[in-house]
Amino acid sequence: MINRLKLYWEFSRPFTLLPPALGMLSGGITAYGAAPPLSLSLVVVINLLLGTLMAAVLNAASNGLNQIYDLEVDRVNKPNRTIPSGRMSLEESHMVTWTLFALALVLAWAVNLNCFLLALAATVFTILYSAPPARTKARGIWANITIAIPRGVLLKVAGWSTLKGVMATEPWYIGLIFGFFLLGASSTKDFADIEGDQAGGCKTLPILYGVKKAAWIIAPFFIVPFFMLPLGVALGILTGSTWALNLLGFGLVVWGTYVVYLMLRDPEALAKTENHPSWTHMYLMMITLQVGFALAYLI
Question: Where are the bilayer-spanning segments (predicted)?
Fold first, then answer.
C-alpha cells in the first residue's frame, strides 16, 4: 500500500503542485487585503487553506490526465514516467486521475459556489487541453490558450473567490495579467520536447513555426503583461500598495527583457537544452509575481 501511494505521489508530479497552490493562496490573500480589507477570522483561514489544497489536487489531476493522453509522447520524451515505464496501468491511472478531479471539486464546493464553478470551468479547460476529441494541445496556439485561461485567469479569480465575490473588475484584471504571461511563457517547455511532440501528433508553436520564429512569437509575453501592473494602479483598478505594485511591475519588465535576450540570442539552444534557463526564469518569474501580489496587498 505504501509503495502504491508513493507511486501515486510520483504520478501527481509533486514538484508542479506548488505554483498553483501558491497562486490560489496569493489570490486569496490579495482579496483579503483589497479594498475594503477584511478582518482575520477562522473562516478566512479555513477558506484559504481549502482553496490552496484544492488547487494542488486539481493540478495533480490535470497532470494525471495529461500523462494518460501523452503516453506516446512520453515514450520518447520521458520514458521513465510511471505509465510508459509500466509501473502504472492506464486503468489505474484513470482511476487515480478522476478520483483527484472529484476530490478537488468537493474541496471547492466546501469553500463556496463561486469557487466550485471556477474550479469546474478549470476542469473543463484541462480536459479540452489533454483529451480527445478536442485535445487542444495538438492545435497550436489553442494549447497556449487552454493553459493560460485555467492556470492564469481562473486560478487567480478562484483564489479571490475564497474570500470575496468575483463580480468586480479587480480579480479579473489580475487574472488577465497572469493569463497573458502564461499565454507565451507556457511554450518554453515545448522547445525541448519537439521530437516527442511530433511523434505524438502535437502541433506546438516550435513545431508549427520553427524554433526561431516561435521564440519571437512568445517573447512579448515575457514583458508586455507586466506593464498592466502600473497601468492598473494608474486607472484605480488595483487597490494594493501603489509603490509595491509599480516596483513589481517594472521589476518584472526588466527581468522579462533579460529572459527574452537569453531566448533570442540563440533560439536553437531552446531545442537542444532540456532545461533551458528561460524555463527556469519563467518558473521563478511566476513565483515572484504570485508572492509579489500577495505582499503588495498586505502592506
Answer: 15-35, 42-61, 98-129, 141-160, 213-237, 243-261, 282-298
